[in-house]
Amino acid sequence: MDLERFEKMDSFSVIRWALEEFKDKVTLASSFNVEDIIIIDIMVKEAEALGMEKEKLRIFTIDTGRLHEETYKVIEKVISKYGVKIDFYFPDYRDVEEMERKYGPNLFYKSIELRKLCCNVRKVKVLKRALNGFKAWITGLRREQSVTRKDIKKVEIDEINNGIFKINPLVDWHDVDIWNYVRENRVPYNELHDRGYSSIGCAPCTRAIKKIEDFRAGRWWWESPESKECGLHVEEE
Ligand code: SF4
Asked: Check: CATH 3.40.50.620 for 3-195?
């Protein structure tokens, strides 16, 4: 398949193609950042246009056990506004118990290795389980979000997840596009965005940023920009 052709397509067309091509074998990975909720808004509209039942759209989220209360609030809002079903996935309790007994509950502040261990237990291993059986997944990644994301394509082959398709329909959106879409389409969003959080993940590892700071400066702010991925989107060394 010629993946370059997707670069010329807009986000709506890419999502429509994904729903038509993969049907219930494509799933959205949602952490309920504003980008993910925009994608849900577009998926619901495109599903209606295609005559698909929106209840059949596949959307999953990983509840790491360390999320902000505000994230749960926006999840409830999304379910109630769009009538979509969310597949919740949790980490394996045995892995979490072993990790916390060995290193304590806040191990992520102690070293990059322990932070990556926590991301692996609470996110990466769970992602593998969540993607099992799917032919494609959709993400809300954007190129301007960080140095580690500047080369992302709209449609890629995901070598770290069994070679399934990875679809990134908002890669070329800028902040201004995001917030214009939210306003024009009354998209619900996590109230932490209004308090200076640009990228929202687990509560202990996310903080608000100043306007002059990099988009992902609030994630694992004690680390350098090059190490700031949790392993969901890049292969860990
Ligand atoms: S973001 Fe923090 S709390 Fe969440 S999984 Fe990674 S290290 Fe653990």
From this structure: yes
